[in-house]
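The records we work with from here on pair a chain with its fold. Taken together, the tokens spell out the fold as the letters spell out the chain. To see the layout at work, look at the sequence and tokens printed below.
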Amino acid sequence: MKTWFITGTDTGAGKTVLAALLAGQLHRQGVRVAALKPVCSGGRADAEALFEALEGSLPLDTINPWFFRAAIAPLLAARREKRAVTKKDLLAHIRRAGKGAAVTLVEGAGGLLSPLGVQVDSRDLIVALRARPIIVAPNKLGVVNSLLLTLAALPPRARAEARMVFMAPEKPDPATGSNAALLAEFFPAGRIFTLPWLGRRVSLPEAGRRAGVKKVLQDIAS
């Protein structure tokens, strides 16, 4: 069983877009995939995107067992509701949900060190699951610094397996065209990928069928 963990340089980096695209492609290929967003706060749209990508083959409450109303860090949102999520809880659910799957795809919340629960963040889960990190970043000015900081925070084994994915913006800035080449001076170019701009209101299942997008997803998954 393969375990991939999608994290990002920050909130809104594009983690859910990539997670849904990857999950949808694997599902259409007949791969048994468990795509999970264990913790959501402020809305359940991320988990619903994964549910749609899997065409309902995994229950929403399995994809997302912990949901909190406040649109703040999950740790704080849970406290407001007098609830708590622990590392033990998260690992037990991920392993149970992924039992029998060829690929378990886990999407974190926020960036790598954003608190998901009581003394647990995405890095803790990556280490415990021995997962391959996939780090998503908006392709804009300043992102190389954010990516290098994220890589530096990973332990050596996880860093050696990591993949970097730039998400193209609607309007490129002066750094957009050079970020991948600059990052390749510090990190293997063969593990750096760029997804094109998909559109403002595009259907993710539809976008995932585009030839260019499919090729990038296949490369990320290889």
